[in-house]
Amino acid sequence: MSQDTLIEIIRCATLAPSGHNTQPWKFALQGQTVRILPDFTRRLPVVDPDDRELYISLGCALENLRLAAQQNGFQSLIDYFPAEDSDCLRVKLQSEPTLPADPLFDAIARRQCTRSEYNGKPVPPADLKRLVELPLEADVSLNIFSEAGQIDRLVEAINAGNRQQFTNPDFMDELITWIRFNEAEATRTQDGLFSRCSGNPTVPRWIGKLFLKMSGADSTVKSDEKKVRSSAGMAVIATQADDRAAWVKAGQVYERFALTAASMTVRNAFMNQPVEVPELRAQLQNSMDLGAARPQLVLRFGYAEEMPRSLRRPVNQVTA
Ligand SMILES: Cc1cc2nc3c(=O)[nH]c(=O)nc-3n(C[C@H](O)[C@H](O)[C@H](O)COP(=O)(O)O)c2cc1C
After folding, report:
1. Rounded to an integer, what distance in angstroms lies between the CA atom of residue 43 and that of residue 1?
2. Separation of 73 CA from ligand 1 center, angstroms?
3. What digits encode the pLDDT tens for the residues 189-208?
């Protein structure tokens, strides 16, 4: 494989979503092997103290890498945290010229987390079937909810999560650290949550900080509930185990969901508050009848216009 192809495959991997757009990954290249490593300098100790969402983000990047490799005629042989190299996801790229391209590849550049209000239209049954039946990883489940009672229970959990998070000064400080309030901040760092991507105006940092601190939990509770109720449905991704490998596999399944949705212009966005607050996570497992499966991700899906795209750091900043 040429160096240019390898770099392009890594670039596709970096287009994956990550918590607060921290892009908490490093890619170490050794011949035809790519090692995906966590970048712990980019962890989120308040919202993600166990690095659970950090590893989910690595799973999203792994899925993009696998699809981009396949597009270039390479199969990915994946070792999850091999004993002799236990920090990494080790991907051996093996030439398979007859491998058909996966149609999901084309959606990598189109996928985004669309945080706006949706238009309330349902997803037609044939498209919903494609989402429900997408290939899963072992011990990972994708649970789709659209009945009124189920949505009410999810709204209750999201509201409770927002109330806890938006009244926690440490959560707010961490969030503000990763918000890019204007063009200059966003282009300098090429990471973080660019306010324009969420439909907010770009402002000087001090104004954005002041506004966020003054707006309080109630306005977020209200606007998130509206966003959920404008969606066609919700999904919870859950896993039997609750360890690094399970988190990575949950990320792979999420990315497959997001790309499948994007290929049908179905938008999605996370509402992870109920899995980020420990006691709410346990309650959600019961209220949504997940049995022994641990909820990992909560999301909504539906139809809306595309929003401005979030930025990524260039490949040379994430390769070792
Ligand atoms: C594990 C994980 C958790 C996330 N949690 C949230 C969340 O709770 N709320 C939210 O609005 N976005 C959440 N995001 C979305 C990221 O903020 C988003 O992926 C990032 O800003 C990059 O934007 P993009 O996905 O549109 O490319 C999460 C992403 C990942 C991978």
Report:
1. 32
2. 30
3. 999 999 999 999 999 999 99
CB-based contacts of 108, cutoff 8 Å, min separation 6 = 12, 15, 64, 67, 68, 259
- Widest pairwise Cα distance in the chain: 58
Atom of ligand 1 nearest to the CA of 193: 21
Q: Of all protein residues, whose CA lies closest to atom 6 belonging to ligand 1?
A: 270
Place of tokens 């498209």: 127
Nearest CA to 262 out of 311, 315, 299, 224 is that of 299
CA dist 55 → 23, 51, 64, 70, 93 (Å): 11, 6, 14, 22, 21
Closest CA to 116 of 308, 261, 263, 307: 307
Ligand 1 contact, 162 CB (< 6 A): no
pLDDT value at position 254? 98
Order of strands, sheet of 140-145, starting from the edge strand that comes earlier in the sequence: 140-145, 233-239, 294-302, 267-270
Cβ neighbour number for residue 287 with a 10 Å cutoff:
15
Count of CB atoms situated within 10 Å of the CB of 1 = 14
- Encode pLDDT of 16-75 as tens digits: 999 999 999 999 999 999 999 999 999 999 999 999 999 999 999 999 999 999 999 999
DSSP states along 193-225: EEGGGGTPPP--HHHHHHHHHHHHHHHHHHHHH
DSSP 72-135: TTEEEEEEES-GGGTTSEEEEEEE-TTPPPPGGGGGTTT--B--S----PPPPHHHHHHHHTS-
Rounded CA-CA distance 233/230 in Å is 9
Residue 166 vs residues 128, 151, 243, 311: alpha-carbon distances, Å: 33, 22, 27, 25
